[in-house]
């Protein structure tokens, strides 16, 4: 297969990547989930919630995440008053807990068939439906694919594996105070899909089968969590 890698910048004041959200408890992972990213690409491409064939096509892409800036976990304590009871005999208050990642920044990589990857690039640049990070209110604060002349490196990469792009891609941090204070050996956390039997593989239950309301279905994948150094040699080229 002639493959390619699509690199996306995931940047927003608030993000929410739920894994076990149920009813009044809405959690978030500490980095983008496979279901969240497939949903994001599905919105860009105009894929219906029940279109299992097109969802499956996106879910088969291999995914990696590099955490450019760890977010801060925030909890929103909500109380909804005057909610009818299930028996219809009165009303009650309902407390819900909603978790968010504040001020996080990620590089998300997707590897797959070259034709599909190039189509996805165009879809992201010209999305059919609005793009958001986990919840509709969490909209991007910068383009997912940055203009090439800025040197941030997002877009399509040919002739490189997802591991090579992950280790060489320019650091997405754009706050000068954080760039200046980063040390030479600063490491970034990475989460990359691997085969089930690989050393260090961890199970994640976030591969979507269908997003049909009331009948959402997911299956398992495996990832390896690791750390790598900021590619300073590449950074110096970008800054020059």
From TrEMBL:
Pfam family for this entry, one: Cas_Cas5d
Gene Ontology MF terms: RNA binding
Record key words, sorted: Antiviral defense
InterPro entries: CRISPR-assoc_prot_Cas5, CRISPR-assoc_prot_Cas5_N, CRISPR-assoc_prot_CasD
Any GO BP annotation: defense response to virus
CDD domains, alphabetized: Cas5_I-E
Gene3D superfamilies, sorted: 3.30.70.2660
Keyword Metal-binding part of the UniProt annotation: no
Alphabetical list of NCBIfam families matching this protein: casD_Cas5e (TIGR01868), CRISPR_cas5 (TIGR02593)
Name of the protein: CRISPR system Cascade subunit CasD
């Amino acid at each position: 297969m002639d493959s390619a890698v699509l690199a996306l910048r995931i940047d927003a004041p608030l993000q929410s990547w739920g894994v076990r959200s149920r009813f009044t408890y809405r959690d978030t992972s500490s980095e983008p989930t496979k279901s969240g990213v497939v949903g994001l690409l599905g919105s860009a491409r105009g894929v219906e919630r029940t279109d299992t064939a097109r969802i499956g096509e996106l879910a088969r892409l291999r995914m990696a995440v590099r955490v450019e800036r760890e977010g801060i976990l925030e909890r929103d304590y909500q109380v909804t008053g005057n909610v009818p009871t299930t028996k219809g005999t009165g009303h009650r208050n309902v407390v819900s807990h909603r978790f968010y990642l504040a001020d996080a920044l990620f590089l998300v990589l997707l590897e797959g068939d070259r034709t599909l990857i190039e189509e996805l690039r165009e879809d992201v640049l010209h999305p059919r439906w609005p793009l958001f990070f986990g919840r509709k209110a969490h909209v991007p604060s910068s383009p997912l694919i940055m203009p090439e002349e800025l040197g941030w490196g997002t877009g399509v990469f040919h002739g490189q594996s997802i591991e090579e792009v992950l280790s060489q891609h320019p650091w997405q941090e754009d706050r000068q105070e954080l760039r200046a204070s980063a040390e030479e050996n600063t490491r970034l956390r990475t989460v990359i899909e691997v085969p089930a039997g690989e050393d260090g593989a961890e199970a994640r239950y976030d591969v979507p089968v269908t997003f049909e309301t009331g009948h959402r279905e997911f299956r398992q994948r495996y990832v390896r969590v690791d750390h790598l150094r900021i590619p300073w040699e590449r950074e110096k080229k970008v800054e020059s």
